[in-house]
Amino acid sequence: MTAASKVLVIGGGFSGMSAAIMMARGGIAVDLAEIDPGWRSYGAGISLHGATLRAFRTLGVLDRFCETGAVTDGLVIRKPHNDEVITRIPTPPAPGVDLPGNAAIMRPALAAILSQATREAGVNVRLGCSFAGIVQDADGVDVSFADGSSARYDAVIGADGLYSATRQALMPDAPSPRFMGQAVWRAELPTPEGVDTLNMWLGRGVKAGINPVGQGRSYIFLTEDKPENDWIDESELLPRMQALLARFPSPILSGVSAGLSTDSRLIYRPLEGMLLPQPWSVGRVMLIGDAVHATTPHLGAGACIGMEDGITIAEELLARASVTGAFAAHEARRWERCRMVVENSARLSEIEITGGDQNEHNAIMGRSVVALTEAI
């Protein structure tokens, strides 16, 4: 007997889809409610690593990922003025995944892979759907939806992101996301000559990186120190990104800057973080992903730990006799790993902003990469 026979997942992002796929494959009837009627995924590229590839293998989408995205080996650090290689750092694979430990893909492409797998698993996907109310008792959860419909579930999984409406409804006093003092710029581009894996350039107040995403394409990211979380109009994205790239005399980055246009899928996002104290559940409703542990991208692990959440909550609901027991087991498996990612990423951000000890930065990166290869 499993803990639940019918579950609602609120939110159709990477975490929610992962939970829905795994539960449906295990025989649980799953409704997935996604507020966006187009089920769109915004953004440019996303950098991943061996632990994420392991999650893809568990979800059954690793082959599709390899057909669409890019799997490469190592991190190359270059001098900002002449592109000379300073060092090449290995990116170890996760145990059980016979692939190098660096990967990247365009976010919409990854969303398409996971949404196809979600539908193939038999999940009932409700697009343009949001909840209006959640009322629970000892035996189940009654959910009313904005379209006037309602349904009863054994459990509800809130996977609706950084500004989670589920969290706000159930935990109105929960801490809010915090601006971390940095912002990231991203754009898509043809892969520059000589770039065959993740390359990075470290400058004063800004760092740049280029990561291949497959099909001869790459994405560039620029992490900029910003004392204030100010609004940037879309018309300013291209000139301001090119101004940041002008800080690097690098021939590769100069060529990238010259080739950018308004068609380069320019994205600007202030970096925010949050680690919700335990418990992450209220009764029969559990929060996962960015709704409880939003992180900056310094370890490239935000999507990874969110998808892992989806996998473990499904495993525990399928293995336990009670919802509360499954939730407790899930949190016990997830807390330390997610805390490590959020807090270490925040410390890396702080070191970059303050010009702190590069040796500490390198040590945190090294410890974190090793920790992420461990089993979930």
Distance N to C terminus: 23 Å
Number of helices: 10
Q: In which range does the helix fraction lie?
A: 25-40%
Could you tell me the number of beta strands? 20
Question: What is the average of the pLDDT values?
Answer: 95
N-to-C SSE string, H for helix and E for strand: EHEEHHEEEEHEEEEEHEEEEHHEEEEHHH
Q: Could you name the ranges where pLDDT drops below 50 across 5 or more consecutive residues?
A: none
The proportion of residues in beta strands is 25-35%
From the spread of the alpha carbons, the general shape counts as globular
Q: Evaluate the radius of gyration.
A: 21 Å
Strand order of the largest sheet: 6-5-14-15-16-13-17-20
Class per helix and strand makeup:
alpha+beta
